[in-house]
Design brief:
Layout: H1 2-14, H2 24-33, H3 37-47, H4 50-75, H5 81-88, H6 92-99, H7 110-138, H8 149-167, H9 171-201, H10 208-244, H11 248-279
Length: 285
């Protein structure tokens, strides 16, 4: 995909009208932009259909996460939604509003449990499939189709184990680590997780050395999103609740999930483009 973007850029430069070459400053600015890191990233994002992909991915996350939380809240005695509020970075007031969306006591009614399970499974598989398609496009790999269904199942099982391990860490333990310690730990865990995600969902077709940089970039952007969420989303949750009622929280969650999609696609794009430019052999003079 990166090679195709380079060819299209060269063709557009060759077809440029002569009249447009009469503006030295404009040509200088355009020359600096052409084949720059920014131009390559923009071309790659267009090729990945970034706006369409992130919107769909955010909706898929919402579609899978809410039924999953509702399902676990119906079966468990713990407040599962508190983990969601913690990851978003909500203050006490915002967390209280999110908590009001879900049951405060467990229920074992069969029909809601089965319905929630079906929606959760469908949503999670859609999320994993979208992730795989994104990384296949970013690393220029062919789609394998139904052959990867067992891989999806294994990925979901491991993801649930990671989430369970994260939820098992108590608040006193997190506070003991300090803000800096939590940030470092989050960076390391996210980088390792996304490196493994890329390598696993691509069925090992991309070597580890090629997924490390995109995973590290994704982890950095994830920390930026965490800081932004902590500073911004509590007030948004409160304002949306006042404007739309409790259902307004769903709009906020959808926005947060879309931002997660942006972090993932930017992390993959920036990492792949940087590696491509670093390893590309310079043209002879």
């Amino acid at each position: 995909m990166l090679h195709r973007a380079d060819k299209e850029l060269a063709a557009s430069q060759a077809d440029r009208p002569a009249g447009r070459r009469a503006h030295p400053r404009l040509d200088t600015a355009r020359g600096r932009y052409d084949r720059s890191l920014a131009q390559t990233v923009v071309a790659q994002l267009k090729a990945l259909h970034v706006f369409e992909w992130t919107t769909i991915f955010g909706a898929e996350l919402l579609w899978s996460a809410l039924p999953f939380i509702i399902l676990l809240s119906s079966l468990a005695n713990e407040r599962i939604d508190d983990d969601l509020s913690r990851h978003i970075g909500l203050n006490h007031h915002g967390a209280q509003i999110v908590r009001s969306l879900f049951r405060s006591s467990p229920s074992h009614s069969l029909v809601p449990i089965v319905t929630g399970l079906l929606f959760t499974v469908a949503g999670v598989f859609a999320v994993v499939s979208s992730l795989q398609v994104l990384y296949e496009r970013a690393f220029e790999q062919e789609h394998r189709g139904w052959r990867d269904v067992p891989r999806y199942i294994a990925y979901v099982a491991i993801l649930l184990a990671v989430l369970a391990a994260d939820g098992g860490v108590s608040n006193p333990e997190r506070r003991a680590a300090g803000a800096m310690g939590q940030a470092v730990l989050t960076f390391v865990v996210v980088a390792i997780f996304f490196a493994w995600t890329m390598h696993f969902l691509l069925a090992g077709r991309v070597p580890w050395r090629r997924v490390i940089v995109p995973a590290v970039v994704t982890a950095v952007l994830w920390l930026v999103l965490s800081l932004f969420s902590s500073a911004y989303f509590s007030s948004v949750v409160i304002d949306d609740t006042r404007t739309y009622g409790t259902i307004g929280v769903v709009f906020t969650l959808l926005t947060w999930f879309i931002l997660i999609g942006i972090v993932i696609v930017l992390g993959a794009t920036l990492g792949v483009v940087w590696q491509h430019r670093r390893t590309r052999t310079p043209a002879p003079h």
